[in-house]
Write a structure and sequence with these properties.
By secondary structure, the chain is an all-alpha fold. It has eleven helices and no strands. α9 packs antiparallel against α10.
Amino acid sequence: MTTNENNQDQNAIDNLNDHLTMAGQHLATNKRIIYWCIALIVIFAAGGAAWYWGYLQPSYKNSQNALYQVETKAAGNDSIAAAEYAKVADKYGSSDAGKLAALQAGEAYYRLGKYDNAAKYLKAFSTKDDVMQAQADVLLGDSYVNLKKYDEALAAFDAALKLASGNQQIAPMILWKKANIFDAQKKYQDALNCYKQIKEAYPTFSFGNGITIDAYISREEARLAK
């Protein structure tokens, strides 16, 4: 292998986290409002039912109040948001408010570059909404990539892909992320398989970087031919 090829491989590994992090932010950015809208619908629906039947429990009310108060305290400050949402998640555990707080804590820690904490709280989040869960799993995978825990990242991306296989935007992006990891590991056949799956199942997907899916496929085939 030539010096130039060695440099290219090293650059690919060095830039892996930057590429996947940027893609993760692309998926995560603008989702916060959606999360909150869904959360508020759930909260108000559940709260209305509880009020109607007369069984509104103090713990439920306290957990919701704690969640609302974080937004006021944080005021757009990720450091405060991460710490305060983490407190709510730790205190209220598997409640709806606790789960939503875990998601928000994970996102805030991710933006701060504190990927261990991000992974911890993103793993604590769960929902029956497949798209939202897939997006959380994608961000979990991105956190692991930044921690250089590539096997864990691939597992998180696979979980997300299983939930979002029919989503024309999320699914191909997940496959692209997986291909980047395989490239860094020099598993070019696995990377090629990801790109071919994108071309076959999501032919209208655009990477937004001016590079076509055929270019990615040709690159992997060239690497395999050496």
